[in-house]
Amino acid sequence: MKEKKENRRKKSYKKVTFQYKLFVIDQIRNGQISINYASKKYDISRSSISYWLKKYSTFEQKNKSMSKDDQIKKLKEKIEELTFVKEFQQDIIAEMELETGLNLSKKSLPEALSKEIEKKKRNLSK
């Protein structure tokens, strides 16, 4: 009593452009529609949409990531900027302490920084 299997055609898939995929993905990621609703609305399988979402996230990461040389360059620039700010703040504190006669840096700053400010005060008083 075996039943004969009907000849079923394999579902034909339509090719979708990259822009169309981005459109669907954008709607899902913005919370406008769910994956299930997008699947029904655009007649695309849920697994295809999930695959697009996965691929798009790796595509996005590749575009946002920097090369190691760029990262090093950016970090060096940030170090230079922060060093300048630190030096400027220490100069202001040293000048203020010389004018007021108070030693606030010893009380409120770490020892290494207060020593640097003391050196600046000595250089300024010369």
Structure in words:
The mean pLDDT is 84. Helix 1 (18-29) packs across helix 3 and helix 4 (68-100) crosses helix 6 (111-125). This protein has helices at 18-29, 35-42, 46-64, 68-100, 104-108, 111-125. The chain contains 6 helices and no strands. It has 126 residues and is an all-alpha fold.
Order of helices and strands: HHHHHH
Portion of residues in beta strands equals under 5%
Main sheet properties: none
Number of helices: 6
Estimated structural class: mainly alpha
Give the helix proportion (percent range).
over 70%
The strand count comes to 0
The whole-angstrom Rg is 32 Å
Mean pLDDT: 84
What is the overall shape?
A: rod-shaped
In the predicted model, the low-confidence regions spanning at least 5 consecutive residues are: none
Cα end-to-end separation: 109 Å
Q: How many domains comprise the coordinates? A: 2
Record the SSE blueprint:
Layout: H1 18-29, H2 35-42, H3 46-64, H4 68-100, H5 104-108, H6 111-125
Helix pairs in contact: 1-3, 4-6
Question: Key features?
Answer:
6 helices
Brief write-up:
The protein is mostly helical and 126 residues long. The protein has helices at 18-29, 35-42, 46-64, 68-100, 104-108, 111-125.
